[in-house]
Amino acid sequence: MNENTAERTITTHVVGAGDDAITYDVHGDLTAATADRPALFLFAAPMDAGGLALLAEQFADRPVVTYDPRGAGRNPVGTADITVEQHAADLHRVIAALDCGPVDAFGTSGGAVNLLALVTAHPEDVRIAVVHEPPLADVLPDREAVLAVVAHMKRTYAERGDGAAMATFIPFVMLDGPVPDGYLDQPAPDPAMFGMSAEDDGTRTNPLLRNMPATIVYRVDADRLRALGDRLVIAAGVESADTLPARGARGVAAVLDLPVADFPSHHAGFTDQPGFPGDPAGFAARLREVLG
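^ Putative aminoacrylate hydrolase RutD, sequence as received from the core. Prediction below:
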C-alpha cells in the first residue's frame, strides 16, 4: 500500500506471517540511505507507528522507518504476555527486510527497552542507538516496590479487566519519585476519573499490559552494552522529573557509566497530544544532534 504526500511517499510492508506478522512503514526512498546518513528507525512500545508520525516528518533528509510493535496497531492481537526478546527479534527482522545496512535507531519507553535488547543481541543492526526513557525497575533502589505495583496491576487486569487496570497504571506512570511506603494501600482509583469504563468486557488484548511485567523487569547486559561505546546514547526529557521512565534512563546510564543526554519536553515530547503538548521540532533537532 502506498500513500502519496506532498513531502514523500510512505510505503507499508509486512514481514512474517500469522501471529508473527509485523507491519512497518518506509517514509521516503531506502536507496537514499548512506553509511553516514543511514535509514532512521523510530519506534516505541506499545505505541504504534502513528505516534511517531510527527517526529518522522521532521527527517525529510533521510529515509525513516516506523512500525507497529507486536500485539499493537495493524498487527495480530492476542492475550499472551509478550517478551522483550520477542520485540527485539521483530526489530531485527524488520531491519533485515529493509536490506539497507545498519540503521540509526531511536527507541522510546517500552521501545527503549526493546532497543537495548536489540543492540545486545544484534549490535551489527544499528549504527547509533538512542534509548529514550526506558522504564526499567532493575536499576532503581525501589525495584521491589515497583515490581509489586506491576504485579498488582497484572492481577487487577486479570480479575477486573482493562479499565480497572489502566486506572491503576496511569497514576503510577505519572508518579514523581520512588514508590512511597503504603502506595498499594490506597483505595483503588475509579476508571471514570480517566474517562474509562469500570465494566469488564472480557478482552485481555491490551498491548501495554501484555508487555508487562517483561518490559519493567528486563535486566541489561552491562558488558555488551558498554562494548558499544559512543554508539549508545541514553536520553531523558528535561520535563520528565523523577517519573519511572526518566529514573530508568538515569539508572541505566549510571550502570554503564554514561552521561544522560537531555531531550526537550517530556516522555512523549516527540508528539503532541490533547492537553499534553510536546515539542516535535525541538525533539527532532536534538535527535539530529546526537546522531551526528
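Confidence is low (pLDDT under 50) at residues 1-6.
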